[in-house]
Write a structure and sequence with these properties.
Elements: E1 4-5, E2 11-17, E3 22-27, E4 32-35, H1 40-48, H2 52-59, E5 66-68
Antiparallel strand pairs: 1-2, 2-3, 3-4, 4-5
Helix pairs in contact: 1-2
């Protein structure tokens, strides 16, 4: 899935696949995680957040199941 860069001190890029409701997040340390059953509105919120890292911690981390890919 294609990812787009975001302006964050922790996150390098994010991508979303609407067909599978999967969100990919690439962190600046090079690790990539895929989160499952994520509504597209969460992706939109993450991309448009003033602080993508803050949005991630408040709305995605520890809420959706995930795997490192």
């Amino acid at each position: 899935m294609a990812r787009i860069p975001v302006n964050s001190s922790n996150i390098a890029s994010v991508g979303y696949d609407a067909a599978t409701s999967s969100l990919q997040i690439e962190f600046l340390n090079g690790k990539v995680y895929e989160y499952y059953e994520v509504p597209e509105s969460e992706f939109d919120g993450l991309v448009n957040a003033g602080s993508p890292g803050g949005y991630f911690h408040a709305n995605i981390k520890n809420i959706y199941s995930y795997a490192e890919i």
